[in-house]
Amino acid sequence: MIRVMGMTRDHQVLTDLPLERIKDGQFVWTWVDLDAPTSEEAEVLASFFHFHPLAIEDCLHVLQRPKMDYYDDFQFLVLHAIDENTLNTVEVDLFIGDDCLVSFHQQRLDEMDEAWNSMLKRAHDRKVWVHGPYSAAYMVIDSLVDHYFPCVYGIEDELDELESKGSRESVEQLMNQVFDLRSRLLKLRRTIVPMRDLMYRILNSQHVQGDKEPRAYYSDIYDHLLKLSEMIDADREMTADLRDSYISLNSNRMNGIMKTLTVITTVFMPLTLIAGIYGMNFVDMPELKWKYGYFAVLGLMAGLSGWMILWFSKRGWFK
């Protein structure tokens, strides 16, 4: 689908325009959004707009790293949206000219719809009207970044829940959840950090904005990305601490089990020795003919076991 928005010289916003009308001189600037276009619709990038072949190639061959390229009459941005369910990235490409913004994405995105509707509401604002394509590009980027926050907040909620239920689940289950969270955080980091670097480049570029007004808006997006990257780093550190804690807890449990087994084995070793001696079946063993021999040996075993347990307790083996 190709949708077109145009701002006329008398500050009227027109939508659902034929693509050919954007060049009739009636509009101060226009926004053309290629929303999950067919191959025939994607051809307009070359046949109608005459964009550079390298930029068109980057649009059609996903996924590119977030970047910004300069051409003679437009700037080309590669951005990333995030699927909140899978955390997979979706590429969004922007062609920013002096009087036109062209956005291209190969699947439908709520972020783009929000930016489109926001532009319709604010298009009459003089600041938005003056800066035109750069204002629309800002709304697109801002909408993409705003949708990063629920993904990060969701992982933080899971971390808090995981930290609180540490004693109610097995260490193996907890470790699996920790490694799953670390994997998802790594996915987010691979998207957010390149976007942060891109915004830093935009802020320090004279090609995208020439005065302080757009710079302030892009600086706000950069601050959001900086906050997100810091949150992700903090969450990764927390998962590392949880992982180390669970490993230590598991080692402590194993040490407790080994201590218990060692005590049991140590107590039964002399008892096994006594039983082995009297189980050798020699003929000349005086104790075998003694009337109270059986009870005496049992008493010896019980007394020896009690003494050993008492001795281990005094040495702190059961603490």
List the helices and strands and how they pair.
Blueprint: E1 2-8, E2 13-15, E3 27-35, H1 39-42, H2 44-47, H3 53-60, E4 67-70, E5 75-82, E6 89-96, E7 100-105, H4 110-122, H5 126-131, H6 133-146, H7 148-164, H8 171-203, H9 212-277, H10 293-314
Parallel strand pairs: 3-7
Antiparallel strand pairs: 1-2, 1-3, 4-5, 5-6, 6-7
Subcellular location: Cell membrane; Membrane
Keywords: Cell membrane, Ion transport, Magnesium, Membrane, Transmembrane, Transmembrane helix, Transport
GO molecular function, one term: cobalt ion binding
Plain-language structure description:
This protein is α+β, with helices and mostly antiparallel strands. Among the domains are: 1-121, Beta Polymerase, domain 2; 256-314, Methane Monooxygenase Hydroxylase, Chain G, domain 1. It contains 10 helices and 7 strands. The chain has helices spanning 39-42, 44-47, 53-60, 110-122, 126-131, 133-146, 148-164, 171-203, 212-277, 293-314, and strands spanning 2-8, 13-15, 27-35, 67-70, 75-82, 89-96, 100-105. It has a 7-stranded mixed sheet, sandwiched between helices. A hairpin with a 6-residue loop joins strand 5 (75-82) and strand 6 (89-96). The longest helix is centred in the last third of the chain and has 66 residues, at 212-277. The N and C termini lie far apart (72 Å). The model has no long low-confidence stretch (mean pLDDT 83). Mediates influx of magnesium ions.
